[in-house]
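STRUCTURE REQUEST FORM
Protein name: HTH arsR-type domain-containing protein
Source organism: Aeromicrobium alkaliterrae
Requested output: structure tokens
Priority: standard
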Amino acid sequence: MVLAVTTMTHMPSVARPELPAGVGVAIDALGNRVKAAAIRSLLVDGRATQTELAARLSVTRSNLQLHLAVLEDLGVLLVHPPREEPDTRRRLYSVDVDRLRQLHEDLGRGLGLA
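Status: completed
Returned output:
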């Protein structure tokens, strides 16, 4: 009896269908449960440090850290005091509501709602 061995010669590529630019940014900001929960908590419960927010969401600080960095880079989160200011106090996060509304509108337009 001869057994045939099949090997995969290539890995499947990541699917990246073409979408309007605003849709991609909105998905990056909102397309994850931890990010969405962080935004919601900051809007509903108010500003928080990374440690406080991690406790609110029942996630580890290390898990939350990358999500907060992405949201900050996308302009969804504001940091107090700003990172440009050297400071030893704990930094507080809040949501830039205008930026969040813009992403919501971009997503709606990009998906054909407007």
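Reviewer notes: Residues 20 and 44 are 30 Å apart (CA to CA). The first strand starts at residue 77 and ends at 80.
Form closed.
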